[in-house]
Design brief:
The protein is of the alpha/beta class. The protein is built from five helices and four strands; from the N terminus they run H-E-H-E-H-E-H-E-H. Helices cover 41% and strands 14% of the residues. The protein has a two-stranded parallel ribbon. A two-stranded parallel sheet has the order 3-4.
Length: 140
């Protein structure tokens, strides 16, 4: 959310879509945290339905169509960028322009610098291949 707020305040976006909104203190996808970082409530578009990267991309594009948006910045964790880009582009069909922004952890570490790097690598590799085999159709 900190990276998203930084981009919002720098004028890169008029709206911020939080998908999915997760209202807990442990996760960084809450409305309260967005407001705390300086994103006004009226600039927020909230989605509560997405439960996977696939549904996240599908819901995002539905919302973009509904609001008449033609481009978006996709801000996600640095380890998640490759898989996000893969599924967003797979579903996009050249309707929208996306740019992908990697966000570091709260500690400012890259994913491979943290203690769970091997687990993250393994998880992302499995998920990416699952997506390449089309298993995302049954996610969520």
């Amino acid at each position: 959310m900190e990276k998203t707020a930084e981009l919002y305040k720098a004028g890169y976006a008029d709206h911020v879509l939080i998908t999915p909104v997760v209202e807990t203190e442990e996760l960084s996808q809450s409305t309260a945290l967005a407001v705390e970082y300086g994103i006004p409530e009226e600039a927020l578009i909230k989605d509560y339905e997405a439960d996977s990267t696939y549904t996240n991309a599908a819901v995002t594009m539905d919302i973009m169509e509904e609001h008449g948006f033609d481009s978006a910045l996709v801000v996600t964790s640095d380890y998640h960028v490759k898989r996000s880009k893969y599924i967003f582009e797979k579903l996009n069909e050249d309707r929208f322009e996306f740019r992908y922004i990697a966000s570091l952890s709260i500690d400012g570490e890259r994913w491979y610098e943290g203690p769970g790097a091997a687990c993250i690598w393994r998880s992302e590799l499995i998920k990416l291949w699952g997506y390449r085999f089309g298993l995302y159709r049954w996610s969520g």
